[in-house]
Design goal:
This protein has nine helices and 14 strands. It is of the alpha/beta class. The strands form four sheets. The protein has a seven-stranded mixed β-sheet with strand order 2-10-9-8-5-3-4. Strand 6 and strand 7 form a beta hairpin. The protein is globular. The structure holds pyridoxal-5'-phosphate. Pyridoxal-5'-phosphate (PLP) binds next to helix 3. The site of pyridoxal-5'-phosphate (PLP) has 11 residues, from helix 3. This is phosphoserine transaminase. Keywords: Amino-acid biosynthesis, Aminotransferase, Pyridoxal phosphate, Serine biosynthesis, Transferase.
Length: 363
């Protein structure tokens, strides 16, 4: 471990790859001989255009995104997309189906109520969001415009392992917290959206991947910034985009490609998650993860201590050992280790060793 750095288990903004940060540091003052920082460039100048075009091209390679889709680099976080999606895909009276597997899906559902007629056709709330439904059991409205899912619920640690094929309507997914953590068949989706600040960059960038034939149908009240057609027609440069954040995402995409692409990244993520879940499951109940095994997230691992009075001590001692941000979300308590792409295996190994030691001292 670099003595200057902690292992940061935050759910987001999250840790970034060390080599990416160092590259950005080296280029901060003078980007590649331009005599400027990326923060100082015109977003319409040739230097920044080369940055955003390369970022898009690399993301297309990573996720194998076809020309049938637009890739947009937007602002406002995934939360803004909770409104933009219904505004772009339906009329105020259109029915829309939501599968609510956690707090983020619920937030998206509630926001959509302002712009269309969403229905939660399944909710895991009564089981504290620890499950994903069987797709065969989903009863969709035959007139639904789209089915919305949250691919990975960051707070509850529940992740879709495969995706439903909607019986009616389009498939829309919030992939904020597992974006670029594994390969995805983009062609199954009408829209994929993600805030960047977990796996691919700093907060301030929101990525939307949308099928081109869906552009141009926004409701009349749609603010111009939320109209995907405006953004697509202007290559995400309708107004000043989050230039530095897009540059950072571009560096991360380059790094993911250099690692061998998302199949390789997924292998590493599986290895880290397996190590941590095994440590929890083999602790004889000292640690517990409430999520059903088959849908446990590779990214966010929530766990509790049997002796809940020790949780504050666990978090404090871990922080002393330079493992930070392990407190669970305020709505669920306990602990949560977020182990996104940029968390090295060594970070998870250190956490697991600490957990075993803590258990030996407190069991
Ligand atoms: N969706 C998911 C799955 C998230 O984890 C988050 C934030 O943590 C959001 C949406 C909201 O993202 P933002 O803060 O970018 O609006």
């Amino acid at each position: 471990q670099d003595p200057d750095r902690v292992f940061n288990f935050a759910a987001g903004p999250a840790t970034l790859p060390a080599n990416v940060l160092k590259k950005a540091q080296a280029e901060l003052y003078d980007w590649r001989g331009s005599g400027m920082s990326v923060m100082e460039m015109s977003h319409r100048g040739k230097e920044f255009l080369s940055i955003i075009q390369k970022a898009e091209a690399d993301l297309r390679t990573l996720l194998n995104i076809s020309d049938d889709y637009s890739v947009l680099f937007l602002q406002g976080g995934a939360t803004t997309q909770f409104a933009a999606i219904p505004l772009n895909l339906c009329r105020p009276d259109d029915p829309v189906d939501f599968v609510v597997t956690g707090s983020w899906g619920d937030k998206a559902f509630k926001e959509a109520q302002k712009f269309c007629k969403p229905k939660a056709i399944w909710s895991g709330k009564s089981e504290k969001y620890t499950k994903i439904p069987s797709f065969d059991d989903l009863e969709q409205n035959p007139d639904t415009k789209y089915l919305h899912i949250c691919a990975n619920e960051t707070i509850h640690g529940v992740e879709f392992k495969d995706y439903p094929i909607p019986k009616s309507g389009l498939l829309v997914a919030d992939m904020s917290s597992n974006f670029c953590s594994k390969p995805v068949d983009v062609s199954k989706f009408a829209v994929i959206y993600a805030g960047a600040q977990k796996n691919v960059g700093p907060s301030g960038v929101t990525i939307v991947i949308i099928r081109k034939d869906l552009l141009g149908n926004a409701q009349e009240i749609t603010p111009v910034m939320l109209d995907y057609k405006t953004q697509a027609d202007n290559d995400s440069l309708y107004n000043t985009p989050p230039c530095y954040g897009i540059y950072m995402c571009g560096l991360v995409f380059e790094d993911l490609l250099a690692q061998g692409g998302l199949h390789e990244v997924e292998k590493k993520n599986k290895k880290k998650a397996e190590l941590l879940y095994n440590a929890i499951d083999e602790s004889n109940g000292f640690y517990r993860c409430p999520v059903e095994k088959s849908v446990r997230s590779l990214m966010n691992v929530p766990f509790t201590l049997e002796k809940s009075e020790l949780e504050a001590e666990f978090i404090k001692e871990a922080a002393k050992e330079k493992m930070v941000q392990l407190k669970g979300h305020r709505s669920v308590g306990g602990m949560r280790a977020s182990i996104y792409n940029a968390m090295p295996l060594a970070g998870v190994e250190k956490l697991v060793a600490f957990m075993k030691d803590f258990q030996a001292r407190h069991a």
